[in-house]
Amino acid sequence: MSNSQITIKDIAKALNVSVSTVSRALNDSPDLSGATKLQVQEYARQHHYKPNLLALSMKKRESKTIGVIVPQIIHHFFSSVLEGMMDVAEREGFNVLLFRSRDSFEKEQHSVQQLISSQVCGVLTSIAKETTHYEHFQELVDHNIPVVFFDRICVDIPSNRVVIDDYAGALAATEYLIKTGCHRIAFFCSPLNLEISKNRRGGYLDALSKHGISVDKDLIKICDNYDEAIPVATEMLQSENRPDAFFAVNDETALGILHATKHLHFKIPEEISICGFTDGFAAIASDPQLTTVGQSGQDVGRSAMELLVEKIRHKGDQPLIKNKIIKTKLIVRETTR
Amino acid sequence: MSNSQITIKDIAKALNVSVSTVSRALNDSPDLSGATKLQVQEYARQHHYKPNLLALSMKKRESKTIGVIVPQIIHHFFSSVLEGMMDVAEREGFNVLLFRSRDSFEKEQHSVQQLISSQVCGVLTSIAKETTHYEHFQELVDHNIPVVFFDRICVDIPSNRVVIDDYAGALAATEYLIKTGCHRIAFFCSPLNLEISKNRRGGYLDALSKHGISVDKDLIKICDNYDEAIPVATEMLQSENRPDAFFAVNDETALGILHATKHLHFKIPEEISICGFTDGFAAIASDPQLTTVGQSGQDVGRSAMELLVEKIRHKGDQPLIKNKIIKTKLIVRETTR
DNA sequence: AGGTACAGTGCAAACGTTTTCACTGACAAA
DNA sequence: TTTGTCAGTGAAAACGTTTGCACTGTACCT
Fold this sequence. Notes:
The structure is a homodimer.
Chain A lengths: L7 H8 L3 H8 L7 H13 L6 H8 L4 E6 L5 H17 L2 E6 L4 H13 L5 E3 L9 H8 L4 E4 L9 E5 L1 H14 L5 E5 L5 H16 L9 E3 L3 H13 L6 E4 L2 H13 L9 E6 L2 H5 L5 E5 L1 H17 L9 E4 L1 E4 L6
Parallel strand pairs in A: 1-2, 1-3, 3-4, 4-5, 5-11, 6-7, 6-8, 8-9, 9-10
Antiparallel strand pairs in A: 10-12
Helix pairs in contact in A: 1-2, 2-3, 5-13, 8-9, 10-11
The first copy, chain A, binds a DNA duplex through helix 2 and helix 4.
């Protein structure tokens, strides 16, 4: 019933040696006689001795723990990122302290405070939607704790970043549609204040101009969810100058378009091609299965963690800022030719 | 550049008082003069003093941290569970140390060791598929660390558990199919060594007998994934004594059945009803959308965390074992009448 | 004046480690 | 014998806190 964690002291007392000796034996220090060392190690093993990480961290002033703050966990992209981070953390011997902001500024701020208090040796985060000022992150920097932002980065703080190559992904997808014979390609995107939106739109536009297709403003819609996509796509499909392809900023929107297209009995992909962005679960579950731009959350997570670990290892060095851009991959399924 | 975490000592030195005074001031102790107290608090605030949680945990011998081990993170159910756990952890003031077993026994074992070393005050876990013996969990119990198992529980260890009510969920779903006019209901399930499989099958069988429908062995198949479901369902649908409904042990299998049914041009739900189990992303993305038994991962996570916190708070008390069964909810969509 | 009460404060131990320094004894070299 | 070397070990400080105890001084009561 005792909170019986056996300590180095207990071993010392039991074996009638000093704590220093026990410590050295357990760390396999070279300046210790074979006999004593073995005796201590044996005793420790038998009694399931476990070093107290708290005491250790305190002594060494580094905790081998990394803090992660995500806006949400039930979310295909973020859970993938988390999974990728765990891959690297495990390999590199770091533990992970998890926080979730729910896109609330206040919670994010509180999480950062907790992380500093917890003496984490690094932080990975994707900022909350609500967040517009960044003193709390600056505090991390002031405390000399390395930070890597991923996906939703913080532009105001000089920091390491890992982002998706939205531009190239959109460019490749649009080019693929063009190459498979589409020339009137509609584009459904989010409001342009979001960075990803701008970049994906840029890729779309550049692909058109690269292939000598002029931009038709009527083909570009601000519309980024399932429900809105249905009426918007329906109207476009019924116009006489209808598009022959749709490219959507995310999979949900693409599914809305798919729904509308099927409803009007257009043949997919013979008459209408559709391409999404993300490659979440939905892309495979839909019928026909959705062609989409795959963004590997796991790669983002892995890269972010790798970058962070590198920063931690070379903490004394020049504070060089490194960014990493994760490639996307076009995943061709049944909604394109 | 210094690892400049300001400490209680620094404050004491700067203000020319003792560390005890500072400590008391920061903890708003009643036996301290107003003036000094305010002065200290003000100084601490200005210099962004943050208590060192490591030192605190060591002193108090409790870390306010809870360890969580999940088999996987990119997984609708487990990420939901995690989200639910965070809800409660946040509310109750606990931090979460996250581990992932990848269904490997070895990793699970290692995670447990880390958790003990980290002095967590409780552990939540769903055991790895590989795991068949439980010494590592027993060690937690021996160390007097409360454990709550969720979903994949550990039968050999007397412990608190949170599970899904598979039996009732399957019973309700089957009854719904019967009430909407189906009498030849096929059942696709996992191998019967899994607990959930047994329970869901039990619910199915009891629903039939409750409504006076005799069991047809040919309608029960061991088949629990998308790819296998397609040929199996196809064959059943082509037999002369075909089923008029399918109930599958998970959503993926149900989608395979859906695929086969559509391919053979049966009308859904007029001719064939289909029901899944889980209510993941896929259920909404499919066309038609899938009727399924919803199991709330978030509720599981919340309940598990609540149970654990209760255990931690009443650690001295009688070690009463509490189990919690999470209700499922039938979510009727388009694949049933 | 003598005593009590108490507010305000500091000292030091403790939590479990690591690590520097110093000590002991044995043995070899002079 | 004296000196030096070295292997083996222990004492103690330190990491940042909290807290029981002891000390000071002032104010109040007889």
